[in-house]
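Format notes (please read before filing issues)

Several people have asked whether sequences and structure tokens are stored in separate files. They are not. Every record keeps both together, in the order shown below: the sequence lines, then the token lines. Line labels are part of the format and must not be stripped during preprocessing.
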Amino acid sequence: VWGVGQEFVMTNVYEDGSGNREKVPDTLFVVFCNRLVCMAFSGILILLHKRSNTDPGFALASLPAVSNLLASWCQYQSLDYVSFTLQTTVKSAKLVPVVIVSSLRGKKHSLQDYAEVLVIASALVIFGLETEGGKDQRRDHSTEFGVILLMALLCFDSLTPHFQDHLFKSRPDLNAIQATFAMSSVAALAAFLVLGVAGEVRGCVGFVARNPAALLHISVLSLASTLTQFLISHTIKHFGPVVFTLIATTRQAISVCISAALFKHHITALACVAAVLLFGTVIVRAIRPLAHSPHRSLDALQVNRGATAAEALLVNTNMNGGSPTSNLFRSPSSSILGTMVKWSLNWQLFICALGIHVFFCFYAMSQEFISIHTFTGDLFTFPLFLIAVNRTAGAIFALCLLKAQGFSFFSSKMRMTMLPAVPNFLATVPQYQALYHLFFPAQVLMKSLKVIPVMLCGGLLKNRIYSRIDYVEGTVITVLVSFFVWDFQLHKGNLRDGDISKHATGDLVAGSVLMVGYVLMDSLTSNLEDYVYQAVRIDPAQQMFGIEVFSGSFAWGILLFTGELRQAFGFLVNHPSALQFVGLLAFSSALGTYACTVTVRLFGPAVFTLLMVSRQIISLVISVFFFQHRVDWLCCFCLVAVSLLVLSASMRQVSQQMQQQLVRQQQQQALGQQDETEKEKNSIDPNSAGTDAKLPVLRAGAGPRRAM
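Then the structure lines:
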């Protein structure tokens, strides 16, 4: 109500009985009315509650009162120079300075907090820029004074909640009503003095007398502002400035939506996506505590199976006198995985994310280049041959890793790798084939729709159970990605002119069916890899070698059976320049596959899928620039914001794993201390040795089983 009333009062032209048309003469007069009503309302409440209105702590209210007054004046005055949507966009940027100031005051924030702040700010920037198409052309949106007002608004509005937070911490006995009365009194007095010095009091009173409707509108606006001030004070006192800023950000988006409906502003489809991104991030942040609620989760399953590699190593270390066992890793000094688990989970996540993003971005660029580039007029149309070459390169790379780490090349346990090898092959074939039916950006984004299927497959296989917040994040990501699939593939021919009718019919259906098959099979692949890790102790290089050998054998066999192998070799003989691109594709595929296998081993299929979704989005943005796809830059910016949301979700899951790891470590340490106490007791009391002495043996034997 306050946001809509603000725009209406400041933009409406009032007509008096004589037919004269005029606007509100001074912005500060509206601010003065707001603070005057707020002061009167809070004063009445103080009298009803029999509280003091002359508390010594009122002097501390001068700082938030002045900063709030200046912010309000800049906010109202800016509407004479910029549109409401642009103003709201700039106000959204205060999220970053609010968190930064909060950090400078000593409050700790995680990287996930900063990532979510950037996502929210980016979404509102996109929303404001997209809705700017319906702006009122009578305003000069590029005036320097308007920009200065917006920057001042950003500065003062960021300082106000921290001044209020300091006020409540300095005087904890000061309630929200007293604080509101103090701040509104100081602000009203300051505004009146400025109006008096400027000689605007008589003109403002005359304007209200000539236009009774304006008095009604300002009264409604002031009442809404008063109630807002009470809610703001209560929120900051009990929840802090960051929570208040998040709530205020959501309110800004709602205000813009209502403003667009009432004042006929234009909202595009991308603006709607930005709104979904904003609301989804805020909702996920709000329900994040539910992720730690006591319900059956992955932690319960990992007691007997499925613990992360780092957790398993810690358990083995604690249960075997402080030295890592060789049951899980051959030797931490020679094993890549054994070395990585010594690092913190944040570093492990960073290395895995870096490997997936770098190697698979090269892979995606090579894949698109081969699928669309013509070699002396001929197109390479042998996707199964590329799969076979990639799998062969991956197997050779895995062999080199096994040799370097001292692992055996063949083991009876590697038979288990046939489980993920089959769906891996069945997923790769439709993925390559779909490139000949869909635009590459649409194909890449459709690969990102597997977040929810991965979670569902984990539940069906009973190797992972996910929390409610996991499904909420997955749903938000799926909705956002689905929009871009539709937009890039069909909307207004953004990618290629004249191809919409073709791809809107047969090719679109065929490509979509192929990608649905890919999503289902690839969701099953990562979960089966996780199942193999939980069923047997196997190194990621062994897992990769088994999968690459089995799926590569399938590919070479089909090539020989269909005769496509001879045609593919003939193409390479006739076009030797294609060899370097096939080699680059195979090399990047091998490195990326190993990064994926290690990620699944360390963090499970959900975190791996989130990292892959982020990588696919970044690959799309790179593809737009390198291959000159006709995609609006704002869409790419929104995609980057979605990628930040995905990375934030992966960081949340890793943070939860860190907490689970710490709990397990503490439990194992407590169990070891209990065993030592019982051993000492048995050594002192020989009569109890016949019964109690067996207990430490049973507990010690349970340790390695928990690490499986």
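For reference, the curators noted about this record: The chain is about 75% helix and 0% strand. Residues 633-684 form the longest helix (52 residues).
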